[in-house]
């Protein structure tokens, strides 16, 4: 447990630095932001009625509100089944992630792509993508909680499916013209960084609980 905690803390530091760098690059218009216009133009050129319908459905299912509901529902199930610390952790992870990306959005106030290319209505700032952030945090948190119960090929299939889902959600935001490419990259990085921070907190709590339970009364 201690080794896993140390590795997770180290990963959290790396991911936080990466997220900070990608957010700065997107806001400053450098690095990945150099590809923003090209990615948006490619998405517009590739649009078809079928792809647009699929993207709208996928982006709705993966919205920040939908991810919050998913975290809440799974949290209730975990609570009822006796996994109360996991339930609280999941809900708090989702809630604090929402607060983090909202704070960054409002602080930086980066404009979204032009309204002329948007296929869905949006109403807040662009950086980072909330869809990308919340899908990475909530779906990733579910994988973290499921991991001890996964064995064999499931330890490959479940994370792979989760990554494909998270990637797909972020891609819809570019396709629909409501986020720049660099917004989505920064959102993924922010989500995974916050997930690592919260996972470190979960491992610390479990380690502390085990230590208290093993201490003679």
Compact overview of the structure:
With about 220 residues, the chain is mostly helical. Helices cover about 75% and strands about 0% of the residues. The two termini are about 25 Å apart.
Topology (elements, then pairings):
Layout: H1 2-28, H2 36-45, H3 49-61, H4 64-80, H5 84-108, H6 130-146, H7 154-175, H8 181-214
Transmembrane segments: 51-80, 87-108, 128-147, 156-178, 184-205
Domain Phosphatidic acid phosphatase type 2/haloperoxidase: 88-199
Organism: Pseudonocardia xishanensis
Structural summary, described in words:
With 217 residues, the chain is mainly alpha-helical. The protein has one domain. It contains eight helices and no strands. Keywords: Membrane, Signal, Transmembrane, Transmembrane helix. This is Phosphatase PAP2 family protein. InterPro entries: PAP2/HPO (IPR000326), PAP2/HPO_sf (IPR036938). Residues 1-19 form the signal peptide.
Supply the key terms.
single chain; 217 residues; mainly alpha; 76% helix; globular
Order of helices and strands: HHHHHHHH
What value does the Rg take, in angstroms? 18 Å
N-end to C-end Cα span: 23 Å
Number of distinct helices: 8
Overall pLDDT metric = 94
Q: Please state the overall shape, judged from the principal axes of the Cα atoms.
A: globular
Largest sheet: none
Provide the low-confidence segments as ranges. none
Count of strand segments: 0
Count of domain modules: 1
Strand coverage percent: under 5%
What helical percentage do the residues reach?
A: over 70%
Keywords: Membrane, Signal, Transmembrane, Transmembrane helix
Protein name: Phosphatase PAP2 family protein
Organism: Pseudonocardia xishanensis
InterPro entries: PAP2/HPO, PAP2/HPO_sf
């Amino acid at each position: 447990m201690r080794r896993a905690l140390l590795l997770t803390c180290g990963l959290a530091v790396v991911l936080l630095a990466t997220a900070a760098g990608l957010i700065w690059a997107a806001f400053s218009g450098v690095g990945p932001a150099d590809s923003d216009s090209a990615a948006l133009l490619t998405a517009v050129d590739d649009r078809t009625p079928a792809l647009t319908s699929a993207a709208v459905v996928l982006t709705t299912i993966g919205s920040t509100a939908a991810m919050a509901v998913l975290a809440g529902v799974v949290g209730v199930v975990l609570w009822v089944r006796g996994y109360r610390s996991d339930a609280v952790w999941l809900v708090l992870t989702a809630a604090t992630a929402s607060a983090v990306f909202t704070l960054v959005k409002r602080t930086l106030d980066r404009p979204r792509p032009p309204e002329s290319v948007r296929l869905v209505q949006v109403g807040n700032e662009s950086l980072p993508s909330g869809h990308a952030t919340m899908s990475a945090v909530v779906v990733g948190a579910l994988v973290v909680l499921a991991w001890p119960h996964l064995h064999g090929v499931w330890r490959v299939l479940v994370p792979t499916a989760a990554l494909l889902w998270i990637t797909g959600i972020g891609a819809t935001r570019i396709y629909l013209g409501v986020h720049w490419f660099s917004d989505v990259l920064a959102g993924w990085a922010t989500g995974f960084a916050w997930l690592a921070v919260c996972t470190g907190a979960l491992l610390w709590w479990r380690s502390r609980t085990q230590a208290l339970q093993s201490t003679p009364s």
